[in-house]
Structure formats: C-alpha cells, structure tokens
C-alpha cells in the first residue's frame, strides 16, 4: 500500500521537544514502513523521520502555530505533491479535511486530535461528508459524532525504544504544557500536600504560556518545586523513569494523554484525575491511580511507589505499542482502498 501522511507545518517529525501529534505521526510512519508499505510524508522540511518525504515543503514554523494561512499553504502543497503518488492520505491537520482542492477519488482519513467542543465538532462534522474520521478514545466521541467515526484507535508509541527507569529519584514529575488545562497548579498542590518534591517539565513558548507561568505558577514554587523548562528525547525519558510517579491532574476532557503512556513505558505509574481518556489509559491500581480531589491524589501519590513497575511497563507494551496502532490503521486503510494491509 502507498500511504500518504500529512503532518502539520509547525514542528518537525519527530519533534525535538514537546509535540504529541508529531510523535504519533512519526510512530505511524516508521511502523507502516516496517510493515512493508511505502510511506510518503508531507511534513516540515527539517523533519528527520526516516521515510520518503515530500520535497518542496517549508521548514518548521513554531512561531506561526495556529495561523490558518500557514496551515492552508502547507496543506495545498501536500495534496498537490501526493496527487497520483499514493493510494490513500491520512491527514493530521485541521484544515486539510476541509480542503476541496484535493485530488478526485483519493481516499482521505483524518484523526480527530482535539476535544469535540462545539466549534471542533462543527469542523469534523463537515469534514465527515467525504473524509473518514478516526477517534482516539471512547470519551472523545461519547456525546458527539460517534455515529460518524469509522474507528476508535488509541495512540501508540515505540515502547521498546524507551528504557525502563528505576523510579528511585525521590520526586514526582509533571510533563506537559504550561496552561491551566494540563493541571500544573494542581500538580504542585498535590505534591506539596504529600510532601513529595516535584519536577516540572513544560512547553512554554507562547506568550499566554509564559504569562501563566509568571503570574500563576511561579509564585507557588517553593524549594521542593523545580521548573526544568521543556525536555525531549532521552532527557524526557530519564526524567520520567526516575520519578516515583507522573502527576497528571488534568482539568479538561483531554481526548488522549500521550504523556501517560510515555510514563508507563518507563515503568512509572500515573496519578491522575479521571477526566477525558484517563480512565481508558490508566488501569486503576495497576498502572497508577485515579482520583478527583487533591487530598485523595496526594494520598495516592504516596502509594504509587508500591506499584509493580514491571506491570506498569507491561500495560504500555500490551495496549499502547506502535504495532497495535499500526495494525488497526492498516485494517481501516485496507477497507477503504481494497489494497491488502499486509505484504
């Protein structure tokens, strides 16, 4: 099968630091290639993913995140370059599924990477007229668009490439974006209630993120709360692997929390609020704990170190591997194209 993948224009594939969607696209590209399929990736020109990449794309533009013109010009170039080159396109942008200049008769699939608030639901509802929709969790489509989604495929990752950590660093960690939805303030309060040092690694590039840190988060930092900035690659997995637990007290209906399976891959349990996809990812009492109140989360943080790290890692291997994600995608692609999913 010849598979076209379209990533967004703003970050390279794979990302150097923060970038959940970009990590997923990278894992899919590598997984499809290992499975014997041809992959053509339309991504920022400074991407390093080891598959064939569409020439003529611009370098990553992190300063233009969210700019419609940047994404649209990227999408136009991607579809023009893939015309006649692929059997199917899997588009991971928001604008692409609504673009009407794409080649006639070309099957297009898109993954819903956002929550389905009314505005996003309207976009994907319109896209569903001629684009196949993939959801990433049951909770994401529990109240809208469930009848228009062709498959629910949870994210996966290259679990085998992640070293198992010892969890003896004597701290909990938070990993995400510097914004209220991700629960960084709640993580600080939980760690302080439990008397456990906290290390925070967070993306903080945009003005709103920097202001939130300056005005809200920094004043809460005491001697046992350390802000590390943004981390990626080996540094990220070392941080996760040495932590007693990942604190992930999200404050929104997150459709899928990739950071939770990254922590589980290192053997580190997750202590989280039961919002969005968290109950679908964390096996309560096995790979972590779920609770709503800060006091309960603090108590569970103190218990997290007693969980079997081998069982936590096994959850990531069994449920969230790249191979399982790739197999599910290829089965859907095969139904849409009539081309065999195996070589």
TrEMBL record:
Glycosyltransferase subfamily 4-like N-terminal domain span: 18-157
Record protein name field: Glycosyltransferase family 4 protein
Keyword Chloroplast: no
Keywords for the protein's UniProt record, in alphabetical order: Glycosyltransferase, Transferase
CDD domains the record matches: GT4_AviGT4-like
InterPro entries, alphabetized: Glyco_trans_4-like_N (IPR028098)
Organism: Arthrobacter sp. K5
Pfam families assigned to the protein according to its UniProt record, in alphabetical order: Glyco_trans_1_4, Glyco_transf_4
TM regions (residue ranges): none
GO molecular function terms noted in the UniProt entry: glycosyltransferase activity
Superkingdom of this protein's organism: Bacteria
Listed PANTHER family: BLL5217 PROTEIN, GLYCOSYLTRANSFERASE
